């Protein structure tokens, strides 16, 4: 403990809630106010009585059908200059309140279990964490995206100052960093549930956990420091304004104040679970606990409670001393528990009295969870629990199938919820980038780039070379896969009528042979895929291959070819085929139904160096953007924005960049929600560098038009 430092003392105690106070957050208005939420299902706004001391309950809000577990403030906007209050509850819902109504403005539904953590960002975005193992990103009343990757409850969430970066902490003992909806990094180190997160700067953050430790991390993945002091689960952590000092609350009945990396002060409270805390702008600390009382602590002499109030608090604290017989075991009588002789028996409860005020208890799965250094299991257990100067030490290395210990919040087991070397020549120019492309000599005030209204396709080909390669590789095909001379003639006819824009329809026999060819082994299938890529634009082929009966089989086959370990030629042609599917109604419907699976597989190809694959990937994203612009599908737009942001980080080719910019412009055109979402993901910061590209001019011109919208 730091010596000579100013000490925090009680400022005031605020009764009002009838059950546990589960969440606290500083409020934008009125100045110096804060909001609390409770298991009594209410949300309360507390305003300062005067500049010196005391708070008054200004507003009580209700909207949840079960206990409320978390709260955050959504920043002010033109419509709501005082901001909004967001609360999450055990009813799986998020309620959004204004400061002038006791009922919610609206309710966000989507989580499948308790919403236990909330964090707000710029431009109205909201991040929620739930026992359903997911986090969700919301914009106004819409769910923009779901962050999936944790294997247990998401207890903590935070949006980092740098736009687009988000953190989630979970009962699976990990923390994940998300960029534009994708997991960029997983932080491992905690030995039990991660319960709280706090932001120190754009590059550093803190975490606290059920392992009784606090960790300071860099977003690059390095754990810079581990702090110990608490002796039980740490539930919340909050940072002082404009510095890196912080406060924590825990199941050990204490609030701890950390300065310069050391525990400078420990304040005991007369309640078992100290669930939450927040630090006000004046440096005062607000604490919520399981006794339903909110307490405020201050360094200021002017705001310190009267001598009578402090005496009453100390008396209450002395009366809350842990009983030596029952400790914190509720109705369990320690005297009736088995004695030392049972320590050698697996699966039994045992107790060790270490002092008059504490009872240490544990349940063994075999005997003792370590290799005993002593012969007496009583001494072994005592030393094991007290390792580390008396701080809580989790029960050895917990394996993934170890039953979690009891969570005092639920009263039972802690919730763990459940290029292209194709052999073919692509001749001519791409109509999207060729002679008809925009030239800098044209008027720069006219936006000819977006919103794009029609799908972009890959049309150019050399039929002679495609057929030549097909015949060559047919000789190496397995006997059961080989095409006969008649089969090859049929494929030649289908390719001819497609390339010559004939009004003739391919026959069922021709399509059957084409399907047989695209199922060749992966090392020889690419010329057949090239024929499919061209053919799928034909209305009858599009309908035949993409209809409800056959479409799932086609998409599954092509998605398998997107395997990052597969052949680049197949990856490229599969992507181009998907792009060309969009020209037909059946193909477009198929692409929309397969969107999540297709995009999640396709984006895995971003890390390669093949520029043609990057162009095809950008074109696929653009074609989805065209569809979402037409039907105003905000969730689809959110996925596309995430994909665009992710690909822009790695792509080098300017043609691929241009198509991504057109996709971005198409998504945000005439849609203020999409504009807000793009800004919250930090896309504007990503694309600024393209505004100075000189050649091709279309890149910088398109970029500047988008920046004007953002």
From TrEMBL:
Q: Where are the WD repeats?
A: 108-138, 147-179, 227-259
In which broad location class does this protein mainly occur, judging by the first location in its UniProt entry?
cytoplasm
Q: Where in the cell is it found?
A: Cytoplasm; Nucleus
Q: Which SMART domains does the record match to this protein? A: WD40
Concerning InterPro entries, the annotation shows: ARM-like (IPR011989), PUL_dom (IPR013535), WD40/YVTN_repeat-like_dom_sf (IPR015943), WD40_repeat_dom_sf (IPR036322), WD40_rpt (IPR001680)
Q: Any one cellular component term from GO for this entry? A: cytoplasm
Key word Cell wall biogenesis/degradation present in the record? no
Q: Indicate whether Signal appears among the record's keywords.
A: no
Q: Please report a single Pfam family linked to this protein.
A: PUL
Show where the PUL domain sits.
Answer: 448-709
Q: Which UniProt keywords apply?
A: Cytoplasm, Nucleus, Repeat, WD repeat
Q: What's a single GO BP term from this record?
A: proteasome-mediated ubiquitin-dependent protein catabolic process
A molecular function annotated in GO for this UniProt entry is: ubiquitin binding
What assembly does the database describe for this protein?
Interacts with ubiquitin. Interacts with UBXN6, VCP and YOD1; may form a complex involved in macroautophagy.
So what family is this one in?
Answer: Belongs to the WD repeat PLAP family.
Question: Which PANTHER family does the UniProt record give?
Answer: PHOSPHOLIPASE A-2-ACTIVATING PROTEIN
User: What name appears for this protein in its UniProt entry?
Assistant: Phospholipase A2 activating protein
